[in-house]
Structure formats: structure tokens, C-alpha cells
Design brief:
The protein is of the alpha+beta class and 114 residues long. Helices cover 45% and strands 31% of the residues. InterPro entries: ERF_bacteria_virus (IPR007499).
């Protein structure tokens, strides 16, 4: 019986960790201002990656959010094709709860335009 109670306690803590994480993520998202697309290239206007990172870090700090993130370049296989991606992981600094997503980097297409 103690195992069932213990498992329920773990499930409650995990659920609360997820809820707290999502609240922090929402606060981050709501606190982000639009970043100007001030850079030009290949016929497009785009945002400065470093400005995006600075803005995210500033919102986390100014709102004292229990959230941080890391980004790692890697490769993934999608439908049998190897794709360069940046894996971004947001995580709670208190509970370790995390959420990751991949952003493709289309370097091959950019090289072919040159």
C-alpha cells in the first residue's frame, strides 16, 4: 500500500512541476517584446539571433522566473533525410522539468543561393 501512496505522491509532484513550469513559460512568452527584423540578407529581413537571446534572458531575470534554457546544434533524421537543427530545451531550475523542440537550420539552401 505504501508503494501506491508513494507513486501518487510522485505523480502529484510531477504534475505540479509541470504546472509551475508552464506558468513560468507563459510569463516568459507574455513578457517578450517584438524584436525588430533589422538584418537583411538573401532578399529577406530577419532578426538578430543574439538580440533574441538577450531579450529572453532579460525577461527571465526581470521577472525572476524559475526557467532557463540551453541550445545545442545537432542533426536529426526526418523522413530519412538528415537535417541540421538547433535543439532548444527550456527547463525549471528548481524541479528539472523540461521541454525541448528542434528548429531546422537550412544551411544547404543558403549555400546554393550564393
Amino acid at each position: 500500500m505504501q508503494d501506491v501512496t508513494s507513486n501518487q505522491g510522485v505523480a502529484i509532484v510531477e504534475s505540479q512541476s509541470k504546472i509551475d513550469f508552464l506558468k513560468n513559460l507563459k510569463s516568459l512568452r507574455m513578457g517578450l517584446n517584438g524584436i525588430d527584423k533589422s538584418l537583411n540578407g538573401y532578399g529577406y529581413r530577419y532578426q538578430d539571433f543574439n538580440e533574441i537571446i538577450r531579450e529572453i534572458k532579460q525577461v527571465i531575470k526581470s521577472n525572476n522566473l524559475d526557467i532557463d534554457f540551453v541550445q545545442c546544434p545537432t542533426i536529426k533524421s526526418f523522413d530519412g533525410n538528415i537535417v541540421n537543427v538547433i535543439t532548444t530545451t527550456f527547463y525549471s531550475t528548481k524541479t528539472g522539468y523540461s521541454y525541448s523542440f528542434d528548429t531546422p537550420i537550412y544551411t544547404e539552401e543558403l549555400k546554393s543561393i550564393e
